[in-house]
Amino acid sequence: MTRTALKHQVASGLRTLRERAGISREDAASVIRASVPTIGHIETARSLPSGLQLEKLLAHYGCPERIPAFLDLRERARAGHDWWSVHPADAIPAYRTLFLGGETVAERIEVWDPQHVPELASTPDYAAALLRATDTPPEDLDQRLALLADRQRAVLDDNAPAVTLVIGEVALRWPVGEPAVVRAQVDHLVALTRRPTVEVRILPVEAPRHPGPFTLLTFPGLGLGDEPTAVYEETMVSGYHYDSPVDVARYRAAFAGLVAESIGPDGLPVMLRRLGF
Fold first, then answer.
1. Is 0.90 surpassed by the pTM of this model?
2. Where does residue 14 rank: exposed (0-12), middle (13-18), buried (19+ CB within 10 A)?
3. Alpha carbons 243 and 251: distance in angstroms, whole number
4. pLDDT per residue over 79-128, tens digit each?
5. Alpha-carbon distance 115 to 82, whole Å?
6. Helix (H/G/I), strand (E/B), else coil: 200
7. Is the dihedral of CA 50, 51, 57, 63 positive or negative?
8. What is the DSSP letter of 35?
9. Of 36, 74, 139, 235, which residue is 20 to 30 A from 223 by alpha carbon distance?
10. Residue among 22, 2, 4, 19 nearest 248 (CA)
11. CATH number, domain 3-81
């Protein structure tokens, strides 16, 4: 498990225990004599608490018996390495590392993209064509594709979470590179559906729901009887994380609507034939 993934384990566990105890972030901050944003950073895996902070927080949450397990997680996180650490430091924007780490440890990944095949499911040729279309410098292309290959391997092969991809029909209609590139991409999507952990769905253009792209990451509950979830959205210049229960509930409802209105595995062959594949 990567360093960032282990940080996610610490973060989600602490947040769950705090909320279960009915303790506010303000109260938690006062216990360790820190600011409220510090608690926020700890609970969103942006930073690790010190050992002493961890002990004080868990004692205040009424679960001192969990201190040894959390201290072990913290030490493993401090000593761990992320899969992208073998690549140049500037190869991944800083705002993306939190998402990539969470993606690596998630037990369920749900992705909606109305315009493109999601990166986790893209072929090298499809990804290269998109990168060229966004004016990626030629000298950066190989590095970006190597990163993508390592990411797909780390998530789909090593972690093997339950993955649901809802893709807009437009993504399969738009030309991306040569026609053979899109056809090979569709063949790859079909191959992915043969994996027991992957579900591919297509949202028809006539469906009424068309929110912007987003990803839902659901993390292991650490035996706490919960399923902590985070939402990630990305623009051309930054990434945004949402993890409050209210925000997550809205995105989860939106994704449920997309799933309900999309074509699933049973109807996928017919739809692909209708699209000419």
1. no
2. buried
3. 10
4. 888 889 889 888 888 889 888 988 988 899 999 999 999 999 999 999 99
5. 29
6. strand
7. positive
8. -
9. 36
10. 19
11. 1.10.260.40
